[in-house]
Amino acid sequence: MSLTGVRPVEHRDGTQIGDGFLARGAVVGYRFLVLEVVMLVSLAPALALATVLDRDPSNLPLLVLALLPAGPALAAAVSVLAHPEEIADLATGRRYWRAYRRDALAVLRLWAPLVAGLAVITFSLAHLDVAGVPAWWGGALVVVAALALVWGMNTLVITALFDFRARDVARLAGYLLGRRPLTSLKHLSLLVLLAGTTYLTSDVVPVLLAPLVAAVLLSSSARLRTDITQEFLG
Question: Which stretches are transmembrane (predicted)?
Answer without folding.
Answer: 32-53, 59-83, 104-123, 135-162, 183-201
